[in-house]
Amino acid sequence: MSVSMLSVIRPLGGVSGLLQVASVLGLVLLLLKAAQLYLHRQWLLRAVQEFLSPPSHWLFGHRHELQKAQELQELQKRAEKYPCTSPRWLCGSRVSLIVYDPDYMKVILERSGEFLPPTHTHCGPGYGLLLLNGQMWFQHRRMLTPDFHYDILKAYVGLMADSVQVMLDKWEELLSQNSSLEIFGHFSLMTLDTLMKCAFSYQGNQQADRYSQSYLQAIQDLNNLVRPVRNVFYQKDIIYRLTTEGRWNHWACQLAHQHTDRVIKLRKAQLQEEGNLEKVRSKRHLDFLDILLFAQMENGTSFSNKDLRAEVDTFMFEGHDTTASGISWILYALATHPEHQQKCREEIQSILGDDSSITWDHLDQMPYTTMCIKEALRLYPPVPGVDRELSKPITFPDGRSLPKGFLVTLSFYALHHNLKVWPNPEVFDPSWFAPGSSRQSHAFLPFSGGSRNCIGKQFAMNEMKVVVALTPLCVELAPDPFRVPVPTPRIVLMSKNGIHLHLRKLF
């Protein structure tokens, strides 16, 4: 009896001992992690001791600013109270220095090595030119630059005008309903249609394509889901994918990738047609997708299918969504300032006369319209801000400095609304951009700046000019007083409640 009892007790004692050892090891690891976080926080506190900011919670930081749905207003308050820059704590061990001063912007953007490598893969369109770094970024940038050659952009104007006309024809059917129209969705379809024709050699009508509708819905979901990445617990993919937002994000990414894969597959099939491959290769200038496909054919080992899809993903997203945001806010600005809208209309009428078509040569003959476009981009920059991680220590013009590895947020929205840079920043004043006017070199950055500026900025500006030239000729724009848009920063600048306008046909 006693022997059998001992045989049972000994294993139990062994299990208890293992549990005790595991508990001690767990406690030690917890203490080590706590010490690591404490030391890291002390390093961060020393790094930002020269920079003033609002009081923050020791654990939650300034997260209350992000949860009020008034983030942009909070940024403007910071810019008014704290010169040049201000730290924003996202949690006790994570802080970013928000920059909204032109001279600070210049110092950071002119250093080509500054870049924030992605710490997670659940947000963003893919690891293309937007997220690449180092030599690979340089190679891809050099490879894709020819697609934005003067001669290619010149040929795109007619395609842009055709896409705008398709959209305006759709609007004509909706005008009889005598209600306001949410324009962001329409411009998203129109800019995607333009991009597909110009950069991806697509011949169909994306504005009537069900695959395009699904893709745009996926991009909208990804835009709305970008907020959770600021949650410290969501920084790791393994945790984020267990959440409802993470699963929805994964589904939206799959839809976006399916659209991209379909575009690539279709173009590959077209290029493989007998005689077509050499015909396309002999073109003086290749389209964006053709450049990528031929690069892969010539050197597939260093340019994989993953690289190809990442570049297409990136350009598909950046090429349509940012432009749709810019155009929507430009037309909203003109709708709320009818006197400027009328001046633009009169300028375009004087240029085009009785001809409703627009050409490359016309784009440089509309100074007042261009002034209004730029002023709207100042008030509503399509990309409200970008993050950078310092690749080496930096010293700013006023002598303050930051160490290597520190995170900075370049807030283009706060820069464009900075009282010290733009007096009366909330007033729509196109004269800021009158020919001959001068300003600090980095005071206006709707397409970022430096070597990592937007590669398609001229493409986007041309498309904006075409839309803003043709739209007011057909319709008069007026705001919906019951649905005033609320700007909110996502991947692009969106409105929390959409951008609704009343449209009245002119003829």
UniProtKB/TrEMBL annotation:
<keyword id="KW-0472">Membrane</keyword>
<dbReference type="Pfam" id="PF00067">
    <property type="entry name" value="p450"/>
</dbReference>
<keyword id="KW-0349">Heme</keyword>
<keyword id="KW-0256">Endoplasmic reticulum</keyword>
<dbReference type="InterPro" id="IPR050196">
    <property type="entry name" value="Cytochrome_P450_Monoox"/>
</dbReference>
<dbReference type="GO" id="GO:0005506">
    <property type="term" value="F:iron ion binding"/>
</dbReference>
<dbReference type="InterPro" id="IPR017972">
    <property type="entry name" value="Cyt_P450_CS"/>
</dbReference>
<keyword id="KW-1133">Transmembrane helix</keyword>
<keyword id="KW-0479">Metal-binding</keyword>
<dbReference type="InterPro" id="IPR002401">
    <property type="entry name" value="Cyt_P450_E_grp-I"/>
</dbReference>
<dbReference type="GO" id="GO:0016712">
    <property type="term" value="F:oxidoreductase activity, acting on paired donors, with incorporation or reduction of molecular oxygen, reduced flavin or flavoprotein as one donor, and incorporation of one atom of oxygen"/>
</dbReference>
<keyword id="KW-0408">Iron</keyword>
<keyword id="KW-0503">Monooxygenase</keyword>
<dbReference type="GO" id="GO:0005789">
    <property type="term" value="C:endoplasmic reticulum membrane"/>
</dbReference>
<feature type="binding site" description="axial binding residue">
    <location>
        <position position="454"/>
    </location>
    <ligand>
        <name>heme</name>
    </ligand>
</feature>
<protein>
    <recommendedName>
        <fullName>Cytochrome P450 4A11</fullName>
    </recommendedName>
</protein>
<feature type="transmembrane region" description="Helical">
    <location>
        <begin position="12"/>
        <end position="32"/>
    </location>
</feature>
<dbReference type="GO" id="GO:0006629">
    <property type="term" value="P:lipid metabolic process"/>
</dbReference>
<comment type="similarity">
    <text>Belongs to the cytochrome P450 family.</text>
</comment>
<dbReference type="GO" id="GO:0020037">
    <property type="term" value="F:heme binding"/>
</dbReference>
<keyword id="KW-0560">Oxidoreductase</keyword>
<dbReference type="InterPro" id="IPR036396">
    <property type="entry name" value="Cyt_P450_sf"/>
</dbReference>
<dbReference type="InterPro" id="IPR001128">
    <property type="entry name" value="Cyt_P450"/>
</dbReference>
<keyword id="KW-0812">Transmembrane</keyword>
